[in-house]
Specification:
Chain A is mostly helical. Chain A has helices spanning 9-17, 21-43, 46-65, 75-94, 120-137, 141-151, 157-164, 168-198. In chain A, helix 3 crosses helix 4, helix 6 (141-151) crosses helix 8 (168-198) and helix 7 (157-164) crosses helix 8. The longest helix of chain A is centred in the last third of the chain and has 31 residues, at 168-198. Chain B has a single domain (4-75), classed as Arc Repressor Mutant, subunit A. The radius of gyration of chain B is 21 Å and the shape is elongated. The relative contact order of chain B is 0.10. Classes of the chains: A mainly alpha, B mainly alpha.
């Protein structure tokens, strides 16, 4: 068993800076899904998101190996912030607009993981998650920001409040509205789906 | 009608950020208040869904990152 598996992010960063490549592999595997999802929610294209995720980790590699890593904050928050900034920069440079959400819910998220989706239950679960990711993108910016910081950058509400310059009650309120909005929209979609299903 | 302060505490509870004494107080209230308990259940359901809505990148992208890091180590 790899001895680095249970170590904290901070310990893994120290080991990596000291030359332990296994420590870096653990860090990447621990955070790859959240970093990837953070980017995917912004750029909405799988291949672009994978490219930008690589750029984010490469930027992190240079910072850590260059001795410029600031150990004060969490690694997860730091890497997700790099990812978020790269995704935003991508839009600015390309002068692109976010992809339009299709009415039937189909999107790039549904084009992945073919081999895993053979069972009906897995497909339903993946469809639900894909729909949820689409709905996150449609949230008001302040609510989406808090949600992404809490869920994908592992920041506490106090840290989010400080990072966004609002009170903790405002951050909590935004999160609450985000959850309520998402739930309402999920329910609405379910009702629409059922009506279509039984109308013929 | 649930007070805003209670609703905010509910969010902290759902995300496991409530201090122990406040958590115990809230749990006592949840046992008595069906409306609050239902709201809590709905929030937990959404939180669970969001936690599981992450997507995995392809293995090749991960290999590229790890190989890049290793190549830098070999150079230095």
């Amino acid at each position: 068993m790899n001895k680095t598996t249970q170590l904290s992010d901070s310990a893994l960063v120290s080991l990596y800076i000291a030359g332990n490549e296994n420590a870096f592999e653990q860090l990447v595997n621990r955070h790859k899904n959240k970093v990837f999802t953070t980017i995917l929610l912004i750029v909405k294209d799988t291949y672009t998101a994978e490219d930008l995720m690589q750029d984010a980790f490469i930027k992190a590699v240079h910072t850590m190996k260059g001795g410029r890593y600031n150990e004060e904050g969490k690694f997860s928050s730091w890497i997700c912030r790099i990812a978020h900034n790269l995704a935003i920069d991508f839009f600015r440079k390309e002068k692109r607009s976010p992809m339009i959400t299709l009415e039937d819910g189909s999107n790039v998220f549904n084009t992945l993981s073919f081999s895993e989706d053979s069972a009906e239950s897995l497909q339903i679960r993946e469809d639900t998650h894909a729909r949820l990711r689409e709905l996150i993108q449609a949230l008001p910016q302040t609510q989406r920001e808090v949600l992404m910081m809490r869920h994908y950058a592992d920041m506490s509400f106090q840290e989010i409040a400080e990072a966004t310059g609002v009170s903790i009650n405002t951050a909590l309120g935004r999160m609450r509205y985000a959850l309520i909005n998402l739930r309402k929209k999920m329910q609405y979609n379910d009702i629409t789906y059922d009506k279509n299903l039984y109308s013929e | 009608m649930i007070k805003t302060s209670t609703q905010n505490e509910l969010i902290q509870y759902v995300y496991d950020e409530l201090a122990d004494d406040a958590r115990m107080q809230l749990e006592a209230v949840l046992m008595q208040d069906n409306e609050l308990a239902e709201t809590c259940s709905e929030l937990l359901e959404m939180q669970f869904l969001l936690q599981n809505a992450v997507k995995s990148p392809g293995e090749r992208a991960i290999s590229n990152i790890l190989n890049y890091s290793k190549s830098l180590s070999l150079q230095s």
